[in-house]
Amino acid sequence: MMIRHMSSSCLQGHVRKAQALVSLGRTEEALREYLVCLSIEPDCRLAQTEAHKLLGDLLAPVTDQVPEHISDYSSLLSFRAHIKNSINTPSQIFSPSLWLSVSSLASTPPAPEMQEDERKPEVRRPDHCFLLKRKWSSTDENTEEGGQERRDDHKRAKSEPAEATDPLSSAVSDVLDPKDLECSLCMRLFYEPVATPCGHTFCLRCLERCLDHNPKCPLCKEELSEYLVQRQFCKTVLMENLISKYLPSELIERQRIHQDEMAEFSNLNKNVPIFVCTMAFPTVPCPLHIFEPCYRLMIRRCMETGTKCFGMCLEDNLKGFADYGCLLEIRDVKFFSDGRSVADTIGRRRFKVIQHSERDGYNTADIEYLEDVKVEGVAQRELQSLHDTVYDLALVWVNSLKTEQKERIEGHFGPMPQKDSELQDSPNGPSWCWWLLAVLPLEGRAQLPFLAITSLKERLSGIRKVLLFMAHSKHR
Ligand SMILES: [Zn+2]
Ligand SMILES: [Zn+2]
């Protein structure tokens, strides 16, 4: 009797303690107290129901909140296990679906090394994408941010008629998300994918842009100097085949984007790339050493589009670059192993800048080409005689140069051009004028106004003034 009374008050103490712990949210400790109660009094109804409830609470979060995901997670786990097992079996025959899964699980890029302004604003969580994708494909729910877009992507991938009769194809398109075949640099479907020696895949152009800044893998930072030296960016044909087989419509869209970009880069009136460096003139050669990352990109684009042209402008403290410039055409470009290059260019046409802008780190401009205004009759005859006089003056000056000076000039700009047979044939006027302006000891500021002049008479008068001034100062 005594013992029973003692255990009853003791039981009450544990019950009260357990209730206090419940109200504090300390579920595990409360459960322990109720279990103590039951060890003292196994028939205690209160302790029985409370312990059962707490036990349920402790185990519930998984089952209560995400019951529909259980099968999903387990399938994911078994899928991972499957991949692991497959990798451990060297004799495993290559399976695209397996390979894709591995690539998507492995693609957890740290921030790719690209300049902030070059990066797309879209933020991606590649380490989650596989998990999320599985979730969407099986539960069809759409609670995650950006879920709609991803789900649409998946639907598009699934809706592809990619040989639905082939069980492998349909299995692949079930697990294949276009996001798995995205370049981690441009966040778009791989275009002309290349793999680095460290095993990472990027679009050719994206990788080149990264290597302009730093010869390291943008993902794992492995040194790629040797790779860069060889400059053998081999396309991964397997990846291309996978994309064209399983994501044909995405590929068409990606090709369209590429073509649109190329068309944009090819426009020689709007957003023309501008090299801000030196004074360039029509018909005059202009050799350039290209080492800055933004200009490496610019030169590559000029070559890829096939225009082989860009504008050359002098620097301007206020506007960034001068309002007048000359379109240069690349005749030849030699790439060095470290990514630098030397471009042999020649001046083609003069232009006036209408609008200054920028693209991917280099300057661009909307431009308008300039042509000489033609004259006839008396004005034409006067022009011819002025031209002949100034040409003779120019010859006198050139012949007055010291041999080594002349050799240096001719080595750089070539010999002085002959007179044109027809004075007004070229919209640029006679080429010897431009050659002379390039070699005369004039500063850029003094040379620049000549680009803007569209009257041959005015240009010849200007040149005559310079030649007379030089002859005068020489004889003094
Ligand atoms: Zn890319
Ligand atoms: Zn790498």
TrEMBL record:
GO terms for molecular function: ubiquitin protein ligase activity; zinc ion binding. Residues 139-171 are annotated as: Disordered. Gene3D superfamilies: LON domain-like, Zinc/RING finger domain, C3HC4 (zinc finger). The keyword Chaperone does not apply. SUPFAM superfamilies: PUA domain-like, RING/U-box. InterPro entries: Lon_prtase_N, Lon_prtase_N_sf, PUA-like_sf, Znf_RING, Znf_RING/FYVE/PHD, Znf_RING_CS. SMART domains: LON, RING. It comes from the Eukaryota. Residues 183-221 form the RING-type domain. Residues 147-161 have a biased composition (Basic and acidic residues). This is LON peptidase N-terminal domain and ring finger 3.
